[in-house]
Amino acid sequence: MLFEAEPQVDIREMNPLSLAFMGDGVLELLVRQHLVERSRLLPGKLHTEAVRYVSARSQFLEMKLLEPMLTEEEHAVFRRGKNANKATVAKHASVEEYRTSTGFECLLGWLYLKGRNERIMELMDVLWREFEPETQD
To answer: Which of 10, 24, 125, 137 is catalytic?
Structure first.
C-alpha cells in the first residue's frame, strides 16, 4: 500500500461503492504507470490512451478476461460491487457494462485495502498481456 494507516472502518462493512471509488483510483494509477513507463507519449496522448483502459466499456471487457481467474471470495466482492445501487448512469456504456465496471473497481479497491497488491499485479499482468483496447477513432 502507498500509505499505511489503521483503517477506522472494517472492510467487510464498507459500502461497495466506496470500494469502487478506491478501485477506480487504483486502476487509474496502474494504467498511468504502465503507459508512462512504456512510452514517450505527451500528456494529452497519455490521457487518450489511458481512457482506452479505464472506460466502463473497457473495464467490462477486461473483467470478462479476469472473471475466470477469480477466487470465490473475489467473485463475491465483484458481485457485491456489480449489484450495488448507483444513482448515476453511464453516458457511453450499457447498464451491464457500467455495473460490471463498478464490480471490477470494487474488487480492485477491496484487494488494495486488504493489502493484496501482488494479486492486483497478477490480474493486471493478464490485462497487459491479453487485453487489446478498442481504438477510439
So the answer is: 24
